[in-house]
Amino acid sequence: MNTEEKIKLIKEGTVEVIEEEELKEKLNKENPIAYTGYEPSGKIHLGHAITIMKLKQLQSLGFKIKILLADFHAYLNGKGSLEEISKTAEYNKKCFQALGLAEDTEFILGSEFETKEDYTNIVYKLATLTTLKRARRSMDMVSRDDDNPKVASTIYPLMQTADMVALNTDIALGGLEQRKIQMLAREELPKLGFEAPVCIHTPLLHGLDGDAKMSSSKGNFIAVDDSEKDIKNKINKSYCPKGEVKDNPMIEIAEHFVYPYQEKLLIERPEKFGGNLELTKEELIKVYSEGNLHPMDLKNGISNYMIELLRPVREYMEKN
Fold it and tell me: Which residues of the chain have pLDDT under 70?
């Protein structure tokens, strides 16, 4: 596979790559490093799985993968005590492994290096370059809504920027909610003599309730280790307006989890309601937008598919 083919593959299913020309240079490096960070703050759900899928792809293209289990970040973001967060981090790690990352994936706790002198020096230098307004704005999509924000919320993006240096990052991968922090990193790191990483942003999944973001704190998610019963119940109750494909969580799940792996989605229906359908992505969008597929039929098709897709995760978690 040549460089152009690799870039095309990397761009699939992403919102943006910043910048593509820099990505070409990274692909020509020996043992390039791709990193992403996750706050250990609850269940690992489909929103996380989108980035894991991209990490697996980067891994197949020769990237060394580093996953930051950002315990200090979770603490700064009010996600519990460090002891509670540590337990969640171990659970999260198992979920990521269950999703099929290669054995040489490196999992790193933030607390293992984020108090070291070299690291804190970078944070202090970033603090002299970054305005309070910029630091707060960069957290808009990451932190909890708070009418009286803590100083911690302004330290968080500076630490995330320093993480990229500490982990020798070539590619920083994250959901679209990370964009403002990653743009801060790209702007400020060169001022300190560090190379800015290429940033890749994956889309945000809508929550099952139609909220703009699937989130463990909002309970509007499908966890990767949910039981068959839970998957079915959650999907049956999900927001799925008839005829609407935009911002429809069921359509999004089909786009991100069905069609990257198979050409058609099976919709099982009784003969009296038209019988079974096997739909490509384009056919699904057309049929549903025209009102010719009932929401419950779509939900049943998605539910049956996701139960099977996540079966290896459930089995891994039961064994480990």
Answer: 141, 143-147
